[in-house]
């Protein structure tokens, strides 16, 4: 009989973390005005990458977003049809296309990011007491470490 409660506690903690992140992401989407764009979260993530990284190849976008080339192509098709991105031949390699954001896309992404930041700032100021700010910093550091963990050597 296994008397070590850690795996069950870790699983319960993992579920709570997942649920909290999911709820926070949904709240951020709502508060930022993301729903009003008519774009999916994936399409907006790709658009934000184009704004931040552009001009950029589709292969680079797939790598940045950790998705397949097909998924990037689908998102880019929607973004092109909406006039938010355009492409031109890569001057270094004419076989490749460089994707760039339209000015309206940059403005949209900036507005969404500002909306998210404003909500988070107000929420932190409202909910996190001054003596909890250090705990908040520690929690952020832990989340960053979780996001960066490499489990490729776990032997599974």
TrEMBL record:
PROSITE patterns: HTH_MARR_2. Residues 10-148 form the HTH marR-type domain. It comes from the Bacteria. Pfam families: MarR_2. Gene3D superfamilies: Winged helix-like DNA-binding domain superfamily/Winged helix DNA-binding domain. GO terms for molecular function: DNA-binding transcription factor activity. This is Transcriptional regulator, MarR family protein.
């Amino acid at each position: 009989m296994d008397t070590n409660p850690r795996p069950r506690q870790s699983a319960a903690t993992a579920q709570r973390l997942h649920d909290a992140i999911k709820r926070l992401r949904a709240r951020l989407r709502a508060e930022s005005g993301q729903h009003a764009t008519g774009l999916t979260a994936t399409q907006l993530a790709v658009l934000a990458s184009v704004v931040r990284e552009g001009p950029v190849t589709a292969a680079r976008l797939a790598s940045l977003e950790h998705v397949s080339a097909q998924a990037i192509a689908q998102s880019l098709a929607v973004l092109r049809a909406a006039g938010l991105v355009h492409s031109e031949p890569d001057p270094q390699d004419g076989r490749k296309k460089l994707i760039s954001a339209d000015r309206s896309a940059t403005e949209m992404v900036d507005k969404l990011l500002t909306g998210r930041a404003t909500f988070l700032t107000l929420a932190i100021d409202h909910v996190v007491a001054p003596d909890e700010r250090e705990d908040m910093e520690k929690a952020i550091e832990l989340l960053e470490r979780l996001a960066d963990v490499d489990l490729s050597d776990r032997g599974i």
